[in-house]
Amino acid sequence: VILATGGNGQLFIPTTNALICTGDGIAMAYRAGAPLMDMEMVQYHPTTLAGLGLLITEGARGEGAHLYNAEGERFMEKYAPNKMELASRDVVSRAEQTEIDEGRGFPNGTVALDITVVGRKRIHEALREIVNVGRDFAGTDITREPIHIKPGNHYAMGGIKTDINGQTEVPGLYAAGECACVSVHGGNRLGANSLLDTLIFGRRAGQHAAEQGRGVSMPTPAGSELARERDAISDIVSRDRSGRRLSEIRAELGATMDGKVAVFRDEDRLREALEKVKQLQEEVKTVAVDDRGSVFNQDVLGVLELQFMLDNAECIVMGAIERKESRGAQYRTDYPERNDADWLKHITLTANGDIPEVGFSEVTMTQWEPEERTY
Length: 375
Ligand SMILES: Cc1cc2nc3c(=O)[nH]c(=O)nc-3n(C[C@H](O)[C@H](O)[C@H](O)COP(=O)(O)OP(=O)(O)OC[C@H]3O[C@@H](n4cnc5c(N)ncnc54)[C@H](O)[C@@H]3O)c2cc1C
Hints:
Methane Monooxygenase Hydroxylase, Chain G, domain 1, 3 domains, globular, 5-stranded mixed sheet, 375 residues, alpha+beta, 13% strand, FAD/NAD(P)-binding domain
């Protein structure tokens, strides 16, 4: 079996990710006993449309767009004077969030991306897609005026721990794509590098699985397993409607993750997030469903996805609490320094009753030793 179910961005509101990114495969592998790795490494993209989370491509800054706060200051001068707007995603996201948190953002909690400096002709040539996004979703003509943006959830560096052939620690179970964690991105994926997950490691996983599968007959799932799944679904369909609404729980999860497990993290807020996730895990057991049908029941799908999302959330928060340092996408205000002596290692999370079991795994170092980033 090869899992290729994508990331888990829907845990956060807003996110650039599609509605299908509910971390299903990550949770399925976890429940099957496969360790997850680097779950705390969640990438926030610096330029997402306020409110909706739609991505304003990095290409805009690549073409020369500037970032301004509400005081008209090109604030990246303070944070990355050499790279300015082209500093890495985590650095720009933190800079924006600092401006917003310290009161120099716009009233809707944003900063401004000024693409007009690129020039109208070039914008239409190179950035047509965001001309349309600006017009249709923000009512902004980006060729004439700045657009309001903020950091938003974008990509999961963590996922199902695999080797370079996509194999997990569960025999016969593979993972590839964003749901997997081969760890080529470390704690901080660079733009466009998802191609590695999908094309390179997707191909390797497929080839290896095909090779291993040769001569192995199709296994028959255990009857007891199927019965357990069937019972769980009929329990969802037949329960009474006294529980909380699914949409409410999802909204609360999204706000918690975005509010406490995003660009800046600290012990207190992470502990609050963990408590909230635990509470929502209890509430999802009685969540109300309206549809009693047995064909294409979207309500049941919603409950199953929410359960997957909560497993993902628990592992992300546990990993973030465990890692008492700042590295890559994880920035702990209570541990602001990178600490290679204690933390140059992966955190793994394995299902173990009520709470995930935390473990560690060595970092594979090849040609390049990690160095501190300076700008
Ligand atoms: C707006 C945006 C722009 C991006 N731009 C870039 C870029 O320019 N360059 C780059 O390298 N990366 C980019 N990325 C990241 C990249 O797109 C993703 O990492 C990549 O698409 C993930 O591919 P995947 O095949 O692993 O998962 P996906 O493309 O998400 O596909 C997962 C599939 O699994 C299916 N699925 C999910 N759950 C289940 C289930 N329970 N049962 C059955 N099927 C299921 C889904 O329906 C979907 O078809 C971008 C991401 C976003 C959101």
